[in-house]
Design goal:
Elements lengths: L5 E9 L2 E4 L1 H9 L4 E2 L15 E7 L6 E7 L6 E2 L2
Antiparallel strand pairs: 1-2, 1-4, 3-6, 4-5
């Protein structure tokens, strides 16, 4: 089960064609998802371009803000504890 991280901000896209997906990331996290990739499930704000998912979050166990970014097709994920 997730450690109750709070998603502070999340976006998906490239340059100035970025969608805010904060509520969607928080919702997926709240249902148990802890690894997030930059796949087509977020939408397509800039067709034909490699897009990126970026997430900023905090956890109750420390006072730091954490962040991650991952590009489409990279095979990588952002892991939130």
């Amino acid at each position: 089960m997730p450690a109750n991280a709070t998603i502070l901000f999340a976006g998906f896209g490239v340059w100035n064609a970025t969608m805010i997906v904060t509520a969607d990331v928080q919702g997926r996290y709240d249902t148990g998802l802890t690894a997030f990739s930059a796949d087509a499930g977020w939408g397509d704000p800039c067709p034909g371009q490699t897009q990126y998912l970026f997430i900023f979050w905090s956890v109750p166990s420390d006072s730091s803000i954490h962040s991650g970014v991952v590009g489409q097709g990279s095979g990588k994920t952002i892991s939130i504890p």
